[in-house]
Every structure is written in C-alpha cells, then in structure tokens.
Amino acid sequence: MxxxxxxxxxxxxxxxxRLRNRYHRTxxxxxxxxxxxxxxxxxxxxxxxxxxxxxxxxxHAASKGVIHKNNAARRKSRLMKAxxxxxxxxx
Length: 91
Fold this sequence. Notes:
By secondary structure, the chain is mainly α. It has a single domain (about 5-90), classed as Methane Monooxygenase Hydroxylase, Chain G, domain 1 (Up-down Bundle). About 85% of the residues lie in helices and about 0% in strands. It has three helices and no strands. The relative contact order is 0.13.
C-alpha cells in the first residue's frame, strides 16, 4: 500500500495507463487472432485484408508505447511470412 501522497498519485496514474494500454493491446491481439483464422481458411484475399488490419493495430499499439516497436515488427513479419506461404500454395 502506498504511504506517501506522491506514491498514491503514481498508483492512480499507473491504473489509468494500465486501462488505456489494455484497450490497445486487446484490439491488437484480436486482429492478430482474426488474421490467423483467415490464414487457416486458405482464402488469400480475406487473409490479406485481415493481416492488413492486424498490422495497422500493431503499429498503433507500438506508436502508443503499449508494445515495443520490434515486438510489433516481429508479429507483422510472421503474419506476412504466413501470407506469402499461403499465396505460394495457391498458385
């Protein structure tokens, strides 16, 4: 438990940030999950759209400082790699 007034304020600030970060992190995770499901269906166009949405959300979360920029880049890279593999199989 915080004993000083400044520590109490830091706790309140941290809670506000935690809730704000949770919103962006959850949206990014949801879009990534949708992209993985779309990749699993085998439809290249829907997978491409879903991956574009996921990449956008990951970039947004990284720009807000919710996740590290390299974390976002790694996740986007893995999705793009999976999409390239799907496109190669479709040909």
